[in-house]
Design goal:
Layout lengths: L9 H22 L11 H8 L10 H12 L21 H13 L10 H18 L6 E5 L2 H19 L4 H4 L8 E4 L4 H9 L7 E3 L10 H10 L5 E6 L11 H10 L3 E5 L24 E5 L11 E5 L2 H8 L29 H34 L4 E8 L2 E6 L7 H15 L5 E5 L2 E7 L7 H16 L1
Parallel strand pairs: 2-3, 2-4, 4-5, 5-6
Antiparallel strand pairs: 1-7, 6-7, 8-9, 9-11, 10-11
Bound molecules: pyridoxal-5'-phosphate.
């Protein structure tokens, strides 16, 4: 016998659980200022709370949420709040968070225009706004990705296609086995570049590491010499807009013309640093970057939209499309609208651009410029004030929103161990959260400010917390 179809009470289930969730969300967000910024419960405790035996019977949606929220208590970091300065992590602005909820409520498969016309047109609009904000040519194609990792992978897939098409090699059909090898020239770079090269079959052995200056900027003479020795073979030059340690920018105006003279594809990692273009005060740092061939950036860092949100841009839209597009008879392809799967790694996907659309409308260009300027000012203030405490020193003054300090071992024997020890104490104190890094052979504390919620009072509270950790 066919079972009766599931009940109409689904409607009230949605209402009850969504109203309950709204309450939990507001309570969580309101509490960010007072709760420990670090997680406070152990791995064992979290496993005990979450890793329940797989149940045969389901439970009410409201109970699922109630128990999940209660089990997560103490297991979250306050990365959306005002005193989280580790890695490069932003919070979520109100409109972008709400838009993210709507994305889930609408639950559209934003892979094709036919599947969700509104999601397609929202992404089309947001992609065009992003190009204006980030200083990328209007003619570039784009994709909304899960993050900068996926944006690099998308851009470098387009690079692989573009470079090898020029040599008459159809990499989409033949793959890389037997193809002309691609060499990648880079100075300092984020690990996501290497992972993209691994995923794409280009491999990390293809990377030629070039000299950088004291701030981590690629030296133009080193690039010129390396490309000239490469004899015109296909090459990618991976540049940085915002070094993860110092925030420094490669000198694009010098490097890109050199790379192009040798026919190289220039890719820019602007995960957070590309946002400097949104501020008249910092835009000069990207001078010359618009001439690149591809750019990767993130929304979940400096634009403060919820995870996960990244952006890929490609100057040669044909290469981009060739590397991603697919046609199938069971799909409906749009002739005059945007089918996201022509540009993305994913086939089915959420309406990933919707939160970005909302954040840009919420902040406007002036609000985004203000966010960038504010984070840079706070980073600079934090580095100076922490660096001037007894027992601390500045290693790299903040460039944009990134700087480095370290802590001095009074016995003079191990500043590295002392730095890690003080960072651990700050984190354990729960008032602020920082991470460590190794820069020029020294352990340092990264000061990275990306959150829209940080205020003057957060900076004061943080400096006090660092002082207490030094003196503990
Ligand atoms: C410079 C840089 N590039 C790439 C990434 C990777 O970004 P995502 O985590 O969004 O993949 C990061 C940070 O995580 C970064 O700081």
């Amino acid at each position: 016998m066919i079972k009766p179809s599931p009940k109409r009470i689904f409607k009230t289930d949605y209402k009850n659980v969504l109203e309950q969730t709204l309450g939990h969300a507001i309570e969580y967000l309101d509490g960010l200022d007072d709760r420990s910024v670090a997680a406070t419960v152990s791995l064992a405790e979290l496993r005990e709370r979450f890793a329940l035996p797989l149940a045969e019977k389901g439970i009410a949606p409201t109970r699922v949420i109630e128990e999940m929220v209660s089990a997560a208590e103490g297991g979250l970091t306050g990365s959306g709040g005002g005193r989280f300065f580790a890695w490069v992590i932003g919070g979520a602005t109100p409109a972008s968070l709400a838009a993210d909820w709507m994305t889930s409520a609408w639950d559209q498969n934003a892979g094709l225009y036919a599947c969700s016309p509104a999601a397609s047109v929202i992404e089309e609009a947001a992609g065009n706004w992003l190009k204006q904000l980030l200083g990328i040519p209007a003619s570039a194609s784009f994709a909304f990705t899960t993050g900068c990792q996926a944006a690099h992978t998308t851009c470098l897939a387009a690079a692989r296609n573009g470079l090898l098409t020029r040599l008459g090699w159809d990499v989409e059909e033949k793959g890389l086995a037997g193809s002309p090898p691609i060499t990648v020239f880079a100075g300092n770079r984020h690990g996501t570049i290497d992972r993209a090269l691994r995923i794409l079959g280009i491999g990390t052995a293809s990377v030629r590491e070039l000299d950088v200056d004291a701030d981590g900027r690629l030296v133009p003479e080193a690039l010129e010499a390396a490309l000239s020795a490469n004899d015109g073979r296909p090459s990618i030059v991976a540049l940085q807009a915002g070094d993860l340690n110092t925030g420094s920018y490669d000198p694009f105006e010098k490097l890109i013309p050199i790379a192009h003279r040798y026919g190289a594809w220039v890719h820019v990692d602007g995960a957070f640093g590309q946002w400097a273009n949104a501020s008249p005060r910092y835009r000069h740092l990207l001078a010359g970057a618009a001439a690149a061939d591809s750019w990767a950036a993130d929304g979940h860092k400096w634009l403060n939209v919820p995870y996960d949100s990244g952006y890929a841009f490609v100057a040669d839209s044909d290469a981009h499309r060739r590397s991603m597009s697919h046609r199938a008879s069971y799909l409906i392809h749009a002739d005059d609208a945007r089918d996201q799967m022509d540009w993305n790694l994913e086939w089915s996907r959420r309406g990933r651009g919707i939160a970005t659309y909302a954040a840009i409308r919420e902040l406007g260009t002036s609000g985004i410029a203000d966010l960038v300027d504010r984070c840079c000012r706070y980073a600079s203030e934090l580095v100076e004030r922490i660096g001037s405490l007894d027992g601390a020193e500045v290693i790299s003054p903040a460039q944009i929103n990134q700087g480095l300090v370290r802590f001095i071992d009074p016995s003079g024997t191990s500043h590295d161990a002392r730095t890690d020890e003080v960072i651990a104490r700050i984190v354990a104190g729960g008032e602020a959260f920082f991470g460590g890094t190794t820069w020029n052979g020294m352990r340092c504390m990264r000061v990275s400010v990306s959150g829209w919620q940080t205020t003057d009072s957060d900076i004061d509270r943080t400096v006090e917390a660092v002082k207490a950790a030094i003196n503990a």
